[in-house]
Amino acid sequence: MNLAWKEMKKSNTKFVILGSIVFLISLLTFIISGLANGLSQDNAALIKNLPDGTIYMETAAEETHALSAIDTDTEKQVLMENDGAFAFSIQMGFLLNEQDGQQSVAFATSTGSAEFPDVAKGDIILDRSLEEDGIKQGDIFNNSQLEDEFTVAGFTDGAKYSHAAVAFIHPDDYADMYRTEQMQMLFVPETAQPRTVSGLQSFSTEEFLNTLPSYSAEQLSLSMIVWFLVVISGMLFAIFFYMMNIQKLGLYGILKAIGVKTGALFRMIWTQMLVITAIALILSIAISQLFGRVAPSDMPFHLPVDATLQLTAVFFIIGFFGATLSGLQIRKATPLQAIQQGEESA
Amino acid sequence: MIFTTQDIQKTFKTGEVAEEILKGIDLSLTEGEITALVGASGSGKSTLLTIAAGLQAASGGEIHFDGGELTAMNQEQIRKIRAQSFGFVFQSPHLVPFLTAEEQLLLMLETAGSPLSKKQRREEVDKMLHSVGMAHRKTAYPASLSGGEKQRVAIARAIVHQPKLLFADEPTASLDSTKSHEVMGLLQQLTKTLNIATLMVTHEEDMLAYADRVITMKDGRFA
Ligand SMILES: Nc1ncnc2c1ncn2[C@@H]1O[C@H](COP(=O)(O)OP(=O)(O)OP(=O)(O)O)[C@@H](O)[C@H]1O
Ligand SMILES: [Mg+2]
């Protein structure tokens, strides 16, 4: 007999309330996690979109890439030894013109690479978000650090850095603007053997992202909120089933007295937890995905399927633990207690 | 004799003090008979009943049931025997609040591992509810039943799986006089027709008329 289902049908109010709370908490978790992802994308899509690999910068720069300058001989040697490796630099700056005003951008340049678009001298390629802001191909921009002008040659997707649009420029233009022939960083894809290069410090892309001060601060606080919510939902299950079980200890004792297995009682609360969690999560996944669609485009919201599935799994696991933890009382409920309680209460 | 105990002892330790509650009980129960257990409060009636029913362990002595030794079995073996061969009626009905009268009995059949098909189980349950006069309320939940009706459903649940032993600890204590006689008449009739060995604890003189045998307990012994 499906005791779990029978109870949920009979005392549905209790379960609907629990389900609604789990739904609200999981929805909040998904939305915050979408925001965390979106912000991280906004802050470092340029780096996150790189394939797996190793980033090198000068050890003396102490993890600040803006201070790093890689010796040209070292650069040549690393690029020669590793297939697909390239050198690149990123600097914050401005673009200016009459009709578009001042745009804060991240100038990025690289020695020929498949990951960064090829740009001719005097051209720039901008992140797609600027096209949405009204900038068009062929627009001309000035820059205070450069005498020549830039012509917008095109747009590319997913090029954000430090919450600014990336402007890809030719290495020669970069050299003129920042008066250096040296690149800040090297990238070596994972296919090539990563190894130590003297004078250079190596980072995985994830490690590199954590050297960006705003990035780790943002992500830390948001992921803390997400984990708190997950833990709260686990505790909610534990507390809810604890309260219900306390009320039902007598019943459990009687059921045990007539021979119902303890395992059957555990299966009952597990089933209830599973059903509630499943319904609540399906609803909140649907709504958070819908939210992702209709959220305004300048709101950084990005909730990929794998992140959703991961969180869903975590909710199930934590709900299971919460329910089981409170279920431990079932084991303590003895038939004898129940019978004697009956005598006392009457 | 389907059920016998030899020299059952029970000692409760509260801190340093060990209190002897049962001091060597030899009890035997016969099929088709109600054995009533009476005695002063605290004389050890409930303790004896729960030990006999395998709900708590004795401190010494042996219990034999249907060719097996209960006192030598593990928890799971005892649970199985309780589910298949014992029935319980308590002072309060202790029905499952979210099951209908019919479902209470179906749950008992399932717990007992009844070999009957689904359809046969329903028929059996109908028959049993009918014999306790509750057939017309089979889809009712406990909350909508009166005290006497609940206790009748509880009795039906206790015997629907055709147990060999029925344990009843003050089954009429929560009922008024008319209802008590109704319930006792029912227990007597079912004990006879189903050939069950029933052990009943009671405080009510009136109810002894239904018993085939009355045993008085005094200070942990049969008087
Ligand atoms: N778990 C226990 N721990 C300690 N003492 C207990 C325990 N269970 C019962 N006792 C004691 O054993 C004695 C007999 O209790 P029992 O419940 O068997 O009496 P009873 O004859 O059923 O009484 P009543 O008629 O009031 O129901 C009492 O003194 C009681 O306090
Ligand atoms: Mg008693």
UniProtKB/TrEMBL annotation, chain A:
It holds the Pfam family FtsX. Coiled coil: none annotated. GO terms for cellular component: plasma membrane. Keywords: Cell membrane, Membrane, Transmembrane, Transmembrane helix, Transport. Its main location: membrane. It is found in: Cell membrane. The chain crosses the membrane at residues 220-243, 264-287, 307-328. Residues 224-335 form the ABC3 transporter permease C-terminal domain. It comes from the Bacteria. It is a multi-pass membrane protein. InterPro entries: ABC-4/HrtB_transporter (IPR051125), ABC3_permease_C (IPR003838). Belongs to the ABC-4 integral membrane protein family. HrtB subfamily. The complex is composed of two ATP-binding proteins (HrtA), two transmembrane proteins (HrtB) and a solute-binding protein. Part of the ABC transporter complex hrt involved in hemin import. Responsible for the translocation of the substrate across the membrane. This is Putative hemin transport system permease protein HrtB. It comes from Planococcus maitriensis. The lineage of its organism: Bacteria, Bacillati, Bacillota, Bacilli, Bacillales.
TrEMBL record, chain B:
GO terms for cellular component: membrane protein complex; plasma membrane. PROSITE patterns: ABC_TRANSPORTER_1, ABC_TRANSPORTER_2. One of its GO terms (molecular function) is ATP binding. InterPro entries: AAA+_ATPase, ABC_transporter-like_ATP-bd, ABC_transporter-like_CS, ABC_transpr_LolD-like, MacB-like_ATP-bd, P-loop_NTPase. Keywords: ATP-binding, Nucleotide-binding, Transport. Residues 3-223 form the ABC transporter domain. Pfam families: ABC_tran (PF00005). Gene3D superfamilies: P-loop containing nucleotide triphosphate hydrolases. PANTHER family: IMPORT ATP-BINDING PROTEIN. This is Hemin ABC transporter ATP-binding protein. It comes from Planococcus maitriensis.
